[in-house]
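Q: I'm building a small set of examples for a reading group on sequence design. Run inverse folding on the following structure and report the sequence directly after it, with nothing in between.
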C-alpha cells in the first residue's frame, strides 16, 4: 500500500504549487483556473488521506472519520472540476473575442 502515501504527498505538493502560483498571477480569470486546480488537488489529498488512515487503523471510529474525509474530499474535487470547466470555457470565450 505504498501508493496511498505517494498520492497524498504528490497531491499536497500540487496543491501548494497552485496556491503559490495563484499569488504570482495578476489575471483574475487565470487565478480562478489555478484555484480550481488547487481545489481538485486538495480534494484528492483529503480523500486519499482518509482512505489511508482507515487502512492503517481499521477500527470503526477510523471508518467513520474516513467516510467524513472521503465525503469532503469528493465535494472539494467535484466543486473544483465544475469551476475548472466553467472558467476554461470563459477563458476560451475571452481568447476568441480577442482574436476577432
Amino acid at each position: 500500500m505504498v501508493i496511498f502515501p505517494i498520492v497524498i504527498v504528490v497531491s499536497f505538493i500540487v496543491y501548494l504549487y497552485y496556491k503559490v502560483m495563484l499569488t504570482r498571477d495578476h489575471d483574475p480569470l487565470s487565478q480562478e483556473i489555478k484555484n480550481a486546480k488547487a481545489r481538485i488537488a486538495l480534494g484528492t489529498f483529503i480523500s486519499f488521506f482518509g482512505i489511508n488512515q482507515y487502512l492503517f487503523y481499521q477500527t470503526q471510529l477510523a471508518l467513520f472519520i474516513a467516510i467524513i474525509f472521503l465525503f469532503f474530499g469528493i465535494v472539494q474535487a467535484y466543486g473544483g472540476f465544475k469551476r475548472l470547466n466553467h472558467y476554461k470555457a470563459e477563458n476560451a470565450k475571452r481568447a476568441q473575442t480577442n482574436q476577432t
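The chain has a mean pLDDT of 96.
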